[in-house]
Specification:
Largest sheet: 7 strands, parallel
Radius of gyration: 22 Å
Number of helices: 15
Number of strands: 13
Strand content: 5-15%
Shape: globular
Order of helices and strands: EHHEEHEEHHEHEHEHEHEHEHEHEHHH
Helix content: 40-55%
Structural class: alpha/beta
């Protein structure tokens, strides 16, 4: 097979959608080298996470030719490239497909990560909602097959966009291999000194925005039994002011440390040194930080109501996203029960098999083969 990818975010985005794109391309090109993979991107930019491409003979990068405007090329002009290059399947990795793909003769697969803009419209500007909705409705209609990154996202597609369930395949995703590598004691000591970390601490990772619901964790702190220190790693948005004001009003500023400058290389050590990882987000498409925590051997407490139970598995703990007392109760239980922590760590690591790269790459290839088998 010759598979083309919308690789814009693989080159230009260093977080969620970019991580997904790089993981998928890398996994397929490595596990199934007999196929050809072409990465279509309006821009090329050096990205250390794409270094593996230099070692693969079955991938190539295609930017717009001549003076074609990048936005036009990605929206419709790319069709001529796909036909010229003999692409069998084009995979839109982030909710989008080019106009005309249905009539081009090139089969298409679309990945849908979430429909949060429809489920929680208050978190988005109205113009953004209109654009997102138009793009995803067209893409879902044009796609031959749709990949949902969780069962919850599949159910949202059926409920909110009335997509036929038979058109949707659920294929989970894995996290970056860095979180599967044991960090040396020397590296941990270096990070602990650099950031003045206590021996035991709570950890939360994610953008500081309303949907991520950090205030639930903040409100739970006064109800925990000890003086647990919380470290928050993530980019602050406008919601950060609300969090900061609450901390000051309730004399909690000495219990919470915000770290924005932690590098990707340092992050695995943070996870591996944490006592409990808390992810109170109201809604996610999947929840990669939970998987990063499980691979790192840290117990997870997350919010109910979206897909986080799928990411965390049956041995992680879950709370209502508005119940700070229950969250405090569960933090106390995990923090003060070494046997429970050990069990959650071991069972959580076992659960990670569901996100094994070889297994998921095989599922993706099956989706492509099924797509080509339809007339």
């Amino acid at each position: 097979m010759h598979i083309g990818f919308d690789a814009k975010r693989a080159f230009l985005n260093n977080t969620g959608l970019g991580n997904y794109s790089r993981w998928l391309i890398s996994g397929l090109a490595t596990q199934f080298p007999e196929h050809q993979y072409t990465l279509y991107t309006p821009y090329t930019k050096n990205n250390q996470h794409l270094a593996y491409l230099q070692q693969l003979r079955n991938t190539r990068v295609v930017p717009p030719s001549g003076f074609a405007p990048s936005a036009w090329w990605r929206t419709t002009g790319i069709i001529s490239n796909l036909k010229h290059d003999g692409v069998n399947i084009y995979h839109g990795l982030s909710h989008e497909l080019p106009l005309g793909i249905k009539k081009s003769g090139v089969k298409s697969v679309l990945t849908v990560h979430d429909l949060i803009f429809l489920r929680f419209p208050q978190y988005y500007k109205w113009i953004d909602r209109l654009i997102y909705q138009a793009k995803i409705k067209y893409a879902c209609s044009a796609a031959d097959r749709i990949i949902a990154v969780s069962e919850k996202t599949k159910q949202d597609l059926i409920e909110l966009l009335q997509i036929d369930a038979s058109k949707i395949e659920v294929v989970y995703q894995d996290c970056d291999p860095a979180f599967k590598l044991h960090q040396s004691e020397a590296q941990k000591t270096l990070i602990r000194k650099k950031y003045n970390l206590p021996k035991r601490f709570l950890l939360s990772v994610g953008t500081i925005e309303e949907r991520k619901n950090l205030l639930l964790l903040i409100k739970a702190l006064p109800h925990t039994r000890g003086n647990e220190q919380l470290f928050v790693i993530g980019k602050p948005k406008a919601y950060f002011e609300e969090v900061k004001n609450y901390l000051e009003a309730h004399q909690l500023t000495d219990r919470v440390t915000f770290l924005r400058e932690v590098t990707f290389q340092e992050l695995p050590a943070f996870y591996q040194m944490a006592t409990v990882f808390v992810y109170p987000s109201r809604y996610e498409g999947f929840g990669i930080p939970i998987l990063e925590a499980l691979y790192s051997g840290v117990p997870v407490i997350a919010a109910k109501g979206s897909c986080l139970e799928e990411a965390g598995g049956p041995h992680s703990l879950y709370v209502d996203p508005d119940d700070e007392l229950d969250l405090a109760k569960k933090i106390n239980k995990v923090w003060n029960t070494p046997a429970l922590r050990q069990e959650m760590m071991l069972k959580g690591f076992e659960y990670c098999y569901n996100f094994n790269n070889e297994k998921l790459a095989a599922q993706l290839i099956q989706v492509y083969q099924k797509t080509l088998s339809y007339a």
